[in-house]
């Protein structure tokens, strides 16, 4: 099976009836690029930049960040690279950054909230990103956006930094600006957010945790961590529909994007980009090749309207895929 998959390495990601989608890789550091290449990713769909901060003894300098972002962007040879601004807080801490203790860190000052409270640190990252944009196809992504105000603040700072660099004579390339959909509030208002960004990427790891009110790392409530729960799927479908209505692309970079049960449901909803750990890429590309999109008609509708449980949807997809085996 692995040998069969390997043949797909340099092939496009297409369904049995020739519909094309994008399969991308999630990375944590530029060192992960080897796996990205070896598995034939068509893009980097999520570069989690917080590791750059976590792996150093002090805040990484603008130049250090620039070099890391440039290495990934150049390494992809003109293919898209989605770089997410730092997602510190929650369970991710820095030894050199003394932040107040919080009762519920996952509901506290995390990701974009922390960046907006520490604009100088955020500004340094944005400068490094814009400088790197000259070397390929950069998509800048903000994590944990929950309100339009947060998005406006982040975009305003990005514009300020852009103008500042232009004044300094620094070359900036074309780049896209997008946001993660991982807070239920943002998924519900996806139609409003879609008018203000170039793309969405759905972060199911957090979207599931916040929708089900079940800590993603707590074994005692892992039975509530339900990717195929119709409530989660409704938020995903609304996000995808809203993106397409506004004419923007929408991807997924949570674990669910590389999940074989989730995959046919996402395909039936028309998700454009699937970003996953590099080792899942060839498996999903091979499943995509089996599926005829005409057969998918009605699957998403059943998954969100007829199914009432996570298990209903596991069965729905197993029955659906049985016709291809
Ligand atoms: C997510 O929440 O799905 C996601 C991709 O972000 P992270 O796992 O880094 O929180
Ligand atoms: Mg997340």
Instruction: Give the low-confidence spans.
Output: none
**Alpha carbon gap, first and last residue:** 14 Å
The main sheet orders its strands as 2-3-4-5-6-7-8-9
> Mean of the pLDDT scores?
97
Bound molecules: phosphoenolpyruvate, magnesium ion
Number of helices: 15
Helix and strand string, N-terminal first?
HEEHEHHEHHEHEHHEHHEHEHHH
Oligomeric category? single chain
Domain PEP-utilising enzyme C-terminal: 2-292
Main location: cytoplasm
EC number: 2.7.3.9
Subcellular location: Cytoplasm
Q: Could you explain the architecture of this structure?
A:
By secondary structure, the protein is of the alpha/beta class. The protein is 44% helix and 14% strand. It is built from 15 helices and nine strands. An eight-stranded parallel β-barrel has the order 2-3-4-5-6-7-8-9, surrounded by five helices. 45% of the residues are buried. The model has no long low-confidence stretch (mean pLDDT 97). The structure holds phosphoenolpyruvate and magnesium ion. Magnesium ion binds next to helix 10. Its EC number is 2.7.3.9.
Essential attributes:
325 residues; alpha/beta; 15 helices; 44% helix; binds phosphoenolpyruvate; binds magnesium ion; transport
Q: How would you concisely characterize the structure shown here?
A:
The protein has helices at 2-6, 33-38, 50-54, 62-75, 112-117, 119-132, 148-167, 184-188, 190-193, 204-212, 230-245, 262-269, 281-290, 299-306, 310-322; strands at residues 13-14, 20-27, 44-48, 80-84, 137-142, 175-181, 199-202, 249-252, 273-277. It is globular, with a radius of gyration of 19 Å. The mean pLDDT is 97.
